[in-house]
């Protein structure tokens, strides 16, 4: 994964359709960037803002205000758990391609709508959501199963510990996390920084979707493929081989992920 630069974060925040729960000014601060605008805190990661993560532990008082004097203090929200859409009664969770797991259903429609809007091609959206389903069953607070036992924490406990800062090894523990199952130190560091900048939980659905779209900007050939996909199979194969890159890249796994995409498209495309 290529290193995402600051410009991409700025672009994403401007273009995002979801309003951040905290406000930001001037973006960067600290020894290399200077002070935040009046009324804003400078976080330990050199970002200006008004969330608890900006104004609390690690806040740099020489570059902005700190503590409860923030103009709009905001604690990280709980992991988002959008309810099943109002028209969920019309969604058939089982079809010729399979049965969508119950744990994925609360998130499926919101993710589908986001991807269709961004990609503009339903085959492309299906190719992406099928891969996300294979990775995490569409759960934004999902910790890779084998690490739950190793860390002695379930999804919720792990997410809460990362949010509170009591668990310090999120970026280096090698445990896959979230919709994409972000794993490497570089990617998890960027995800954590982005969550702090947005003032959200690390398990927030909208934050992860926006971060996913930021990451994809480094894969313009993949975006082009998704936008012009003539089939779910072609889109799904491209996502798996170019973006997700799992260890098992066999034809069996390619077909399995494409089938997930077809299953979700048939259920959600109405």
Keywords:
270 residues, mainly alpha, Wheat Germ Agglutinin (Isolectin 2), domain 1, Lysozyme, two-stranded antiparallel sheet, 11 helices, 47% helix, disordered N terminus
Overall tally of domains: 2
- Percent of residues in beta strands? under 5%
User: Strand-and-helix sequence, N→C?
Assistant: HEEHEEHHHHHHHHH
> How far apart are the first and last residues' alpha carbons, in Å?
34 Å
Structural class of the helix and strand makeup? Answer: mainly alpha
Helical residue percent? 40-55%
Gist of the model:
The chain has 270 residues and is an all-alpha fold.
Structure explained in plain terms:
The structure is a single chain. The chain is an all-alpha fold. It folds into two domains: 25-66, Wheat Germ Agglutinin (Isolectin 2), domain 1 (2-Layer Sandwich), CATH 3.30.60; 94-269, Lysozyme, CATH 1.10.530. 47% of the residues lie in helices and 3% in strands. The protein contains eleven helices and four strands; from the N terminus they run αββαββααααααααα. The protein has helices at 6-15, 52-55, 105-119, 122-136, 145-151, 155-164, 185-198, 205-216, 220-227, 232-244, 251-268; strands at 41-42, 48-49, 94-95, 98-99. A two-stranded antiparallel sheet has the order 1-2. A hairpin with a 5-residue loop joins β1 and β2 (48-49). Residues 1-25 and 69-86 have low confidence and may be disordered.
